[in-house]
Specification:
The structure is a single chain. By secondary structure, the chain is an alpha+beta fold. The chain has a domain at 2-69. Helices cover 20% and strands 36% of the residues. The protein has a 5-stranded antiparallel beta sheet with strand order 3-1-2-4-5, with no helix packed on it. The protein starts with a strand and ends with a helix. The model has no long low-confidence stretch (mean pLDDT 85).
C-alpha cells in the first residue's frame, strides 16, 4: 500500500507538504509522489507553543518537520468590547466637561 504525498516546492532541495492522501482523486494529483507505507513517515514532536510543519527532502524523499512558534491567541472579544466601551465613556466625559 502507498500514500500520495502532495507538496509545494520551496526550492530545488525541499518542499512543504500540503497533504498526504492514500487514495487521491486524479484532480488532486500535482507536485508530489507516491510513497510506500514501508517508508518512514515520522510523527511530529509535541513541543509546547510550537507548530510542526511537514517538509520533504526532494533528493532523499525523507519527511521531516520544522517547528515554528505558535502565535499568541487573539484577545477575547469581550475584553476588546469592554476596552472600547471604557474609551467611549472617557471621550464622552471629555466632551461633556465644561471648557475653562
Amino acid at each position: 500500500m502507498s500514500i500520495y504525498v502532495l507538496f509545494t516546492k520551496v526550492n530545488d532541495d525541499f518542499g512543504q507538504i500540503t497533504a498526504m492522501n492514500p487514495k487521491p482523486y486524479p484532480e488532486q494529483l500535482g507536485d508530489g509522489w507516491y510513497m510506500s507505507l514501508n517508508d518512514v513517515i515520522p510523527r511530529p514532536e509535541n513541543i509546547p507553543n510550537m507548530d510542526a510543519v511537514p517538509y520533504i527532502d526532494l533528493k532523499s524523499k525523507e519527511i521531516y518537520y520544522q517547528y515554528f512558534e505558535t502565535p499568541p491567541p487573539p484577545q477575547p472579544l469581550d475584553e476588546q468590547i469592554d476596552e472600547l466601551k471604557l474609551a467611549v465613556a472617557e471621550l464622552t466625559m471629555m466632551i461633556a466637561a465644561p471648557q475653562a
